[in-house]
Amino acid sequence: MSIFQTIAERRICEALETGAFPDLSHWKNRPLPDDTEMRMVAPDLRMAYKVLKNAGYIPEELALHQEIRRTQDLLAHATEEREKLGHLRRISLLCAKLEASMGRPVHLDEDGPYFVRVTERLSRK
After folding, report:
1. Alpha carbon distance 122, 103 (integer Å)
2. Rounded Cα gap, residues 88 and 71, in angstroms
3. What is the pLDDT of residues 37-53, one digit of tens each?
4. CA atoms within 13 A on the CB side of 110
5. In sequence order, what DSSP letters do the residues of 80-111 get, joined into one string?
6. Which domain range does residue 93 map to?
7. Is residue 121 part of a domain?
8. CB of 92 within 8 A of CB of 64?
9. 57 within some domain
């Protein structure tokens, strides 16, 4: 055993003797509760996602979902038409980013403002 393992073992034993750890006997022989946040994540990726989540990082798709929800809340409480239009555009952009990040094709309406911009930019090159 290395010196670090020996020190760690000694400190754990001291903490157990002094009662520094909470009583977890009610969890004995019971499964851990389901992690509802990770139910849509593939089982082989869950541990990596948990490590990243505990470190303060979240997947891009989840961050986009959260941003869409926040913008929808702002839209629900907006009073001016110009402000509502800005929030709607932001939601549309975030949804397009989400679709693209998930590998789905982004469809542009031929009547929409982005279709004209994209076709103009592609025709210039």
Report:
1. 21
2. 8
3. 778 788 888 888 888 88
4. 0
5. SHHHHHHHHHHHHHHHHHHHHHTTPPPPPPTT
6. 36-106
7. no
8. no
9. yes
Pair 59, 67: CB distance under 8 Å? no
Q: 10-30: per-residue pLDDT in tens?
A: 999 898 888 888 877 777 788
Residue 96, in any domain of the structure = yes
Q: Which distant-in-sequence residues (6+ apart) come within 8 Å of 99 by Cβ?
A: 105, 106
- pTM (global) more than 0.90: no
Number of domains in the chain: 1
Q: At what angle do helices 81-101 and 60-77 cross, to 10 degrees?
A: 160
Residue 56 and residue 62 in contact, taking contact as beta carbons nearer than 8 Å:
no
Q: How many CB atoms lie within 10 A of CB 68?
A: 17
User: Does 69 score more than 90 pLDDT?
Assistant: yes
Which tokens in the block code for residue 63? 């961050």
Query: 10 Å Cβ neighbour count for 97?
Result: 16
Supply the DSSP symbol for 8: H
Residue 9 lies in a domain: no
User: Which residue in the block uniquely carries the two structure tokens 């593939």?
Assistant: 42
